[in-house]
Structures are given as structure tokens and as C-alpha cells.
Fold each of these.
Amino acid sequence: MDQTLQISQAAAELVAAFASNDTERYFACFSEDATFVFHTLPQPLRSRQAYQALWQQWQEEGFKVLDCQSSNATISLQGDLAIFIHSVATRITINGEEQQLAERETILFRRHNTRWLACHEHLSVVSPA
């Protein structure tokens, strides 16, 4: 199978798992050593475990993903590393209050045997034009 198609499928699986608020499936898309930079946090998260702990806390506080749509995707292959950039429109609820988010995201995927897993995610706000 073409590598670009494999990466596209890995990204689609990650977005679908996130969009359905499926914690187990979502975190299975990341390598254990994955790092995360979110504009909503004061510092990077240095492991999947750190993000999972924060995710669980958010869920306990009433956070839930209602939907997530990916658009404008580009993929750049760099050997066993792939750079996936896209726009995301996300609908979430926090303590019963629904919010719409417009963000841009870069996800680095690294080959793990026959699978591509996300090893870094960077999320930023889309600036008004």
C-alpha cells in the first residue's frame, strides 16, 4: 500500500476516534513517547501517559468531544517520519456548555513496524485573516 495512503488512513483513524470521544481508540493512535503542544496549556506534555492523565481529568470535569472535522490536509514524507497538517473544526462540551473550535494542527507520524503512529501533535488557533 502507498505510504501516503497509509498515513492518510492513520490520520483519519485518529480524527475519527477523537471525534467519537473514544478514549481507548484515540490514545492507541499515539506512540508511548509522543509529545503534545496545545495552545491551551502553559507547557508541552512530554508523553502519551501525561496526556491521558490530563484527558481523564478533563473528562471527569465534564469535557466531551461531540464532533471533529478535518480539512485542507497535506502530507509530507520524510523517510520513516511523516508530517500531516490539517485544519480542524471541533465541537466540544465543557460542563454542559457547547463550544465550536477552529484550529490548525500538525501531527508527526512515525513508522512502527507496519503501522504509522502519531509521535507529536501541535495544535494552534486559526488566526483571523
Note: The first strand starts at residue 30 and ends at 38.
Amino acid sequence: MLIGELSRRTGVHTHQLRYYEAQGLLRPARGANGYREYDEDAVLRVRQIRHLLGAGLSSEDIAYLLPCATGEAPELIGCPELLAAMRSRLRRLDDQLGRLARSREALAGYIDAAERAGGGSYPPLTASAMAPCPA
């Protein structure tokens, strides 16, 4: 099948499919006319890629994981490379969550202090309301 058909069957834009190819995640054959030609397995592969991207994995991580993937969801066979990549990504997510929690706590503290100093409540902030405070 050509790239347009793969796009239609998976709901993934052709430019994203080309990106997956550039990242080594898809390997289409080339016809005599130079067009990309995908086999039926490409539909499953694209669905696996989309699920793994949805889990927050990078295309580099996915390149390691795909050889261990079976089924659309996909199910992952616990090979050592797979487990190491997923544990590494989980550590990065935990670090990001920690930073976000600390930022949220600090921001909530600033809001509480500003409300106490101002003596009242204020409407929710919008982007246009983020102007400097008058002196």
C-alpha cells in the first residue's frame, strides 16, 4: 500500500509517517517508481508506535521497544533492553513530576500571600491579566 493508504487506515498524517521512517521506526520498500510501499504489518506497527508515543516514550525509546512489541496495544516482552529503556523513561517522568509539584506548591504559596496582602479574592488570571502590578 502507498503512504496515503497507510495514513487513511491509521489516521496518522503522511508527514508523521515520513518522520517515523526517518527515525527508523518504519521501513517501507520502494517501488520502481520510487514510491514508498508498505505491507500490511505497517498498519500494526504504526498503531504500536502511536500507543507508545501516548505513553510518553520518545522515538528513540520506541526504536528499542518495537522489537519486543506484539499486538496493537502493544504487549511488551520483557527483554533487558526494553526494561532498561522503560525504567529510564519512568525515572525522567518522576523527576518531571517532582519539579512540577514543587513549582505548583511555590505558585500556590505566592497566590495565598498575594490574596492575604490584598485583602480579597481576585478573578482567575488570564494571559491578558498577566500585566505588571501598579506601583
Note: The first strand starts at residue 29 and ends at 30.
